[in-house]
Design brief:
The complex is a heterodimer. By secondary structure, chain A is an alpha/beta fold. Chain A is 21% helix and 27% strand. Chain A has five helices and seven strands. Chain B folds into two domains: 6-20 and 65-144, Dihydrodipicolinate Reductase, domain 2 (2-Layer Sandwich), CATH 3.30.360; 147-272, no CATH class. A four-stranded mixed sheet of chain B has the order 2-1-3-8. A four-stranded mixed sheet of chain B has the order 4-7-5-6. Classes of the chains: A alpha/beta, B alpha/beta.
């Protein structure tokens, strides 16, 4: 495990992504997109039926979160990660369409891990239940799709120094093993 | 006959709902600090630091500790000498509506498990009523998150499985939950009763103070032994290995059938939020 914290800027380049190793602490800055169960279902349906996606997936990062509503004066409310395994049935299709970075919490299925390696993508783990702290790392928030899903809508976030740990790298290493 | 006005009841509940979502009990913070002191490697220390920093920001700025502000769960104890000229369940749901909307908490309830349309005000609450003597109304509230609830389990052991059977079931449940339940966790364990009683015992056990020890010596010993066994699993904070898997174990028991040994494990994540009011 590296002792230094690695700074990543989105979209994360192939070179930077391939260098990541399980256990690396990273700080992400730039644009990331949100999506949880309901939005994943809709995005996969959109791909299957040839419709336009809320954003171009190529080399992008999805963060699994459903924030609390922002109070007046706040950019975003509490915004910690949700459990990633629930997105396992949908993630392979998104990776086949260019998604390279997934951010959430907790372990995922073996099938997902195999697809991740095949697509040379990475999975980053964020500490669950620290949504107040994480709200301070979001500079901008915008709902870009499925607004009727409320907290589950797809949001475009501009983050700075958003903390995560590399949980699955492109070499098939697994931090939870 | 004493009565409690509907407006007062709703405003007090709205207050504790918002308070519970934003202020973590000091005893949880103390347990986290004790856990951190026992850790020797970098990741668990890093994670516990994040959790402690987070609750401080949440407390100071009144931001929800966790974005999952849960299902609103209430244990309501009604004094025999109380009279209500309104529907108590409706009043509690009104308080949930007010608290979740006015407190900027997340609405996480869908109206049917299959068509999954959000009710937009976090109602209905899940309310457990019981009667007590006197003229007081005691209400305990917890916003229970989905992550740890999804990892909770119930089983019917045989009497022959006994104590060791219970310990093994709990340890396996915690190992299976891994990082998904957001450890360091707190375990509410219900033993005895029947199918539904065991789960209710487990839920209510989570409302006990962390420093509280079971009165029955059998339950107390089980609490101690399960805590040790669970912390020997090396699941660790957020499932990334370490000594601090569980902060406390609470066992509540009840008589049961000669053929049965029901066991329920309700997992609580480290954002162990609850609040009580006596009116």
């Amino acid at each position: 495990m590296s002792q230094d914290i690695i700074k990543l800027t989105t979209p994360i380049s192939d070179e930077a992504r391939l260098k990541l190793r399980v256990g690396d602490l990273v700080l992400i800055s730039g644009v990331i997109y949100t999506g949880r169960d309901a939005a994943h279902k809709l995005m996969v349906q959109a791909i299957t039926s040839g419709e336009t996606l809320p954003f171009e997936l190529n080399h992008q990062a999805i963060y699994y979160v459903g924030p609390t509503p922002a109070k007046p004066g706040q950019v975003i409310g509490s915004c910690g990660p949700t459990s990633s395994y629930r997105m396992d049935p949908y993630s392979p299709v998104l990776m086949e369409n260019g998604l390279k970075v997934m951010i959430g919490k907790g372990p995922r299925s073996k099938v997902f891990q195999a697809e991740l390696v095949k697509n040379q993508a990475v999975y980053l783990d964020v500490t669950g239940g620290i949504g107040a702290l994480l709200s301070k790392r979001v500079l901008k928030m915008e709902v870009i799709a499925y607004p009727w899903l409320e907290s589950e809508a797809v949001h475009k976030l501009l983050v700075v120094d958003f903390p995560a740990i590399v949980a699955y790298d492109t070499f098939g290493n697994d931090i939870f093993e | 006959m004493r009565t409690i006005s509907k407006e007062y009841l709703i405003s007090e509940l709205e207050r504790i709902i918002i308070e519970a979502a934003t202020v973590l009990d000091d005893e949880v913070v103390t347990c986290l600090q004790v856990g951190k002191a026992q850790e020797t490697s970098k990741l668990p220390i890093h994670i516990i630091d994040e959790i402690i920093d987070n609750q401080l920001i949440a407390r100071n700025e009144r931001i929800p500790i966790c974005q999952d502000t849960g299902v609103a769960v209430f244990f309501v104890e009604i004094g025999n000498d109380l009279h209500f000229d309104y529907n108590l369940t409706d009043a509690i749901n009104q308080a949930v509506r007010n608290g979740y909307i006015n407190g900027y908490l997340r609405k996480s309830i869908v109206n049917h498990p299959l068509d999954r349309k959000n009710t937009l005000d976090n109602t209905p609450a899940i309310i457990h009523y019981s009667l007590i003597s006197g003229d007081r109304l005691r209400i305990r509230f917890a916003p229970k998150g989905g992550g740890s609830e999804n990892m909770s389990k119930m089983t019917m052991l045989t009497p022959a499985d006994g104590r060791q059977g219970i310990i093994d079931f709990v340890v396996n449940t915690v190992k299976n939950a891994g990082g998904k339940a957001c450890p360091p966790i707190i375990l509410g364990i219900g033993i005895g009763g029947n199918f539904e009683k065991s789960t209710l015992l487990a839920k209510e056990a989570l409302f006990r103070k962390l420093s509280d020890e079971a009165l029955n010596p059998l339950d107390k010993k089980l609490e101690e032994d399960i805590l040790k066994a669970v912390n020997d699993t090396n699941v660790g904070p957020m499932g990334l290995k370490g000594k601090t898997t569980c902060l406390a174990v609470k066992v509540n028991s009840f008589p049961c059938h000669i053929a049965s040994l029901p066991v329920a494990v309700n997992i609580q994540c480290h954002a162990a939020r609850h609040k009580e009011v006596i009116l």
